[in-house]
Fold PH domain-containing protein.
Amino acid sequence: MATPTSPSVPSRAMTNDDDAVPGEDTSEVTKLFAERLAAWKHAVGYLEDYITATEKTHHAHGKEYERVLKTVRDPLKEGHHFDQSLGGIAGMFENIRSNTQGISNQHYETAKQLKGIILPVFERLHTEIKNKTKELTKGAGKGSKAVDKARATTQKHIELLGQHTASFESHGGKMTATDDPYLLQRGVMHRLNKQIQEENNNRQDLISVQNSFAQFEAHVIQTIQGGMGQFMQVVNTQAEQTKMAYGDMVGTAQKVPLDFEWNGFVQRNNTILIDPNAPARSVTNISFPNQNHRSTKPLIAGSLERKAKLRGYNTNYYVVTPSKFLHEFKTDDDFAKDPVPENSLYLPDCVVGALAGQKFNVKGKDVSKGKVGNTFSMNHEFQFKAHTPSAASQWWEIIRQAAGQVTTDIPDSSVPTSPVSKQNSPSGPEHGMLPLRTDTEGLERAGTNKSSTMTPASAAPASGVEKQPGQY
């Protein structure tokens, strides 16, 4: 720190030899010094406020870091998934908790040091400045008042001398002994001498105060520098400790081996995790309750052609189930799409016509749309054609046994005017037709004896069976 230099000699003189009672303000210098001390006092007050605010901030930070600590509270949720030994994620969080608690404590300690060590330095300096102000007021301030009093006395006698010298001129020198200008002048000289002594004494006091101000201000600045140095040391220590804490957190996280947690997880759950060497599951190897129950096995299944609305025939996959439903599907593939029937006929509610070669008709209502759809659906005549007369006979016989009525109506044998594409009208297995599967025993097991309601084609009258009410 630089040593304060000696102040230069002021150029202003304290007195004017031409005037017995100068018109200057004797307290002007004292007021100037008092104002300067007030400036120093306020400057130190700013530093006190700064230290106090910083202390409160660190205390608040201590509380905030306690809130931060709660975000990594112990134990961790699903903590059993992490290895509890050091070197893993659980150890990393324990390190984070420890360092975060340390940061909180460091802020509390910093606040404590700022309030107990740094702030008193500036409070004591503030008190010194206040005492210096009192010293100036009681010392130089008193001298200025004494000078003002002496000057007032001298001025009073000078005015009295002027009054009686004017009377001497007007009255021709006739006056009392006490009013003799000669005596009055000597009285002025006496009081002027006392005034000058007071002025010189005050001058020496002000010079002494003026000279001491250099050392006092140097002391003020030196104290401020010392206090700020201690402040820097305290906050720098706290900042370094916080930096080290965060560095330790990051370092601990970076030291966790990439496969540490996974290897521990696999070891702890080796009886639960999937063996990658085990074969994949297959539908063919799976069984479930009621699999292949007799009610699930079709009575007959395979490809049939059904006459389209306009012309020609479309080939689809059909099944007659033990529940006496004739279901129509696009394909027999259960995996490509959900096997929802395109049409479903409940055969006991249907009427089956006579067999004519490869063709036969079934009249009934499509019940595949649920209860609401069934209510509003109309009866339709479905015209079927098998691939061979033998296949047609098998289909017709099984459907006849399940149907509600059988007639001698022969299907329309007219040939379409335009040729039918191979895709829509295949003629046999070589065109992608599905093989025919039959199970007539299932039908016999599924229902009761319908001999009273089902009429064989050979026994049916030529004119057909009489239709029941509400049927076609």
User: Anything to note?
Assistant: Residues 49 and 447 are 101 Å apart (CA to CA). Residues 181-254 form the longest helix (74 residues). The chain is about 50% helix and 10% strand.
